């Protein structure tokens, strides 16, 4: 049996912060897992190094399910993003080790490929409608079959999803949280014309997506879903905060626009009511924030019973380790829908050499044994941690809102 001999947490900032767990075994192989929780990175790093790593040493690295249960039930304090990201990192690293020992890519251990490759969506954004459509064309020219559209809101200084640099989007931009101003009324005036113009300009085939980023009340979200219906969006995402799951019932009563939710979910219990009541169409939980491959597969299996498909979060605050793990998951689950993809910086790609590849709007995890991704510790050490927070949003009268 491969015994765990050592585990350590590596925090690096090649342009943005990443937390990686590396587990060593006496079988001559190691595994890596992503534990990045944007803006709260060191909480997960400490949870792992202070409370998880000591419990791992000496254990059989093959016992993935048992170690998962040990860390989940054994903590007594269940769930939560910090706990579940820490468990996820261990889980990913153990799947990586198992794959390397078996000499197989992880997707083979998960039942093999259910498709040739996985459809991804890119992020098109711009200050106005025209440059957003131009950005979308840029993605379509690269072969993308699906594009997310976000544009600036007239009368507002900035908004979620619109970056200074078109090809990169990094909201965690400041040593202390940046304060931004939000106007629902102004936002609701611009998104339907954006979609009307995009559908007209880009034709019927390309999938168009949009992220509301938790900013609307249920009835406002229902209005947006209804207004966008003629333009056949692939989904609208996080239309309203999901703590109140009945809010989604209200949106459903008014529209057939598909709904996606779940990038901030960390356990199957966050999604259970939404899935069982068929209040959503896509579940966006990720391998990093929702307990690793072991738990994400459980969520996907529940979703599959209700024809809810997966659409994993894939922003740049998930490291290439998470992207690799997501692609093995995506390739294997029967109810895959789509995968979000944002290219990382060259520095990040150098710190995390990987086997996954993009081609014509689709991605594949590659055939390397394990996850097919690693961390170059020497490179990582040259980029020390730098505190960075996500922004906060306030209404025009100063009321704190959902960012
Ligand atoms: C997305 C997300 C991200 C989040 C980010 C927060 O759909 O890609 O909403 O961009 O804002 O992951 O850390
Ligand atoms: Mg989102």
TrEMBL record:
Enzymatic reactions: D-mannonate = 2-dehydro-3-deoxy-D-gluconate + H2O
UniProt key word Metal-binding: yes
Domain Mandelate racemase/muconate lactonizing enzyme C-terminal: 129-258
Cofactor(s), names only, from the UniProt record: Mg(2+)
EC number from the UniProt entry: 4.2.1.8
Uppermost EC category: lyase
Keywords: Carbohydrate metabolism, Lyase, Magnesium, Metal-binding
Pathway involvement of the protein, from the record: Carbohydrate metabolism; pentose and glucuronate interconversion
Coiled coil regions in record: none
Entry keyword Nucleotide-binding: no
Annotated function: Catalyzes the dehydration of D-mannonate. Has no detectable activity with a panel of 70 other acid sugars (in vitro).
Family: Belongs to the mandelate racemase/muconate lactonizing enzyme family. GalD subfamily.
NCBIfam families the record matches: ManoateDhtManD, PRK15072.1
Name this polypeptide is given: mannonate dehydratase
Organism: Sphingomonas morindae
Upper lineage: Bacteria, Pseudomonadati, Pseudomonadota, Alphaproteobacteria, Sphingomonadales
